[in-house]
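Students often ask why inverse folding is considered easier than folding. One informal answer: many sequences map to the same fold, so there is more than one right answer. In these notes we will look at a single instance of the problem. The structure comes first.
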């Protein structure tokens, strides 16, 4: 969690928008940390893809941007449902 989010989140701020923004920031920080953990194979591909989709939605990006080449290959092999229009392009299977 960023320092700005910590102070607003922990201060008991009465401004609902500030508290909501702080919670969003804390959630996003945690999610980004989990996305980084996936690179160390600490999450399943299903968990990773779900988290990547959530973070991508918050950031206006596509889930494929958070996936490794190996993850994209596994998804292209049909391991999980994938919508290229929403989630991003997959590599061609050779």
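Output (designed amino acids):
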């Amino acid at each position: 969690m960023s320092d700005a989010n910590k102070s607003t989140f922990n201060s008991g701020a009465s401004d609902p928008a500030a508290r909501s923004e702080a919670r969003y920031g804390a959630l996003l920080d945690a999610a980004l940390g989990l996305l980084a953990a996936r690179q160390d194979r600490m999450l399943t591909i299903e968990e990773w893809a779900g988290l990547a989709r959530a973070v991508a939605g918050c950031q206006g990006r596509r889930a494929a941007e958070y996936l490794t080449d190996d993850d994209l290959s596994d998804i292209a092999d049909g391991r999980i449902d994938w919508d290229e229009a929403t989630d991003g392009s997959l590599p061609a299977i050779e």
